[in-house]
């Protein structure tokens, strides 16, 4: 039980919310592991393990369905309003974004199959270098966003939103680097296109982490800041971040 679930007058509701809370954490851990494994298959040029990652995405989908069913049941039984309803809306949105992180990890695993499961020429390892470095970036963003939900930590949520701007710069830098491979040899275009898709998947994962951090602000402060600039988010969070 965390700050979000503690102290409700209906103890059974506390238990149901705790179950949902644990489902969110389980999905978060699973998709982070999926991302790790997907990029590792690319690094090790292992299409068989990439297929295993793609198959394992079914577990993410199953947890997504479990969370949705639990939400629907809880809403039907408790008919929540005010803060309780805000909690459920937040959990629903977070689960959706985490499931999409799993989808993007699956796309990266598919790159491994595309590059290394045939007799075609393989990409220069330097082309995929930025995928490796960006993965560490976005994986930490996802972990921190889930932790900010677990702990209702506004500062950690704001840090994720702030770091997303750095991720955008990393993405643009990686695109510039890839352009040099095209200048050197136009035959690299096929590999470059696929690497861009991998980088784009990582950028989207960062976006999902930012969304989750924004949901935490919504949960604590009651305001949707997903589309607000960082300065507006900082102004909204301000001093004092107690859950109310």
**CATH superfamily heading:** Phosphate transport system protein phou homolog 2, domain 2
And the CATH topology? Methane Monooxygenase Hydroxylase, Chain G, domain 1
Instruction: Characterize the overall form.
Output: flat
Q: Strand-and-helix sequence, N→C?
A: HHHHHHH
Helix content: over 70%
Distance between the termini: 16 Å
- Oligomer, anyone? single chain
Q: Tell me the number of strands.
A: 0
- Rg over CA atoms, rounded to whole Å, is 20 Å
Give the uncertain stretches in residue-range form: 240-244
CATH C-level = Mainly Alpha
Report what the structure shows.
The two termini are 16 Å apart. The protein has helices spanning 11-44, 47-78, 82-116, 129-151, 154-184, 189-221, 230-237. The chain is an all-alpha fold. The protein has a single domain (11-237), classed as Phosphate transport system protein phou homolog 2, domain 2 (Methane Monooxygenase Hydroxylase, Chain G, domain 1), CATH 1.20.58. The protein has seven helices and no strands. Helix 4 packs antiparallel against helix 5.
Keywords:
7 helices, Methane Monooxygenase Hydroxylase, Chain G, domain 1, flat, 244 residues, disordered C terminus, mainly alpha
Q: What is the fold's blueprint, element by element?
A:
Elements: H1 11-44, H2 47-78, H3 82-116, H4 129-151, H5 154-184, H6 189-221, H7 230-237
Helix pairs in contact: 1-2, 1-3, 1-4, 2-3, 3-6, 4-5, 4-6, 5-6, 5-7
Short account of what is shown:
The protein is mostly helical and about 240 residues long.
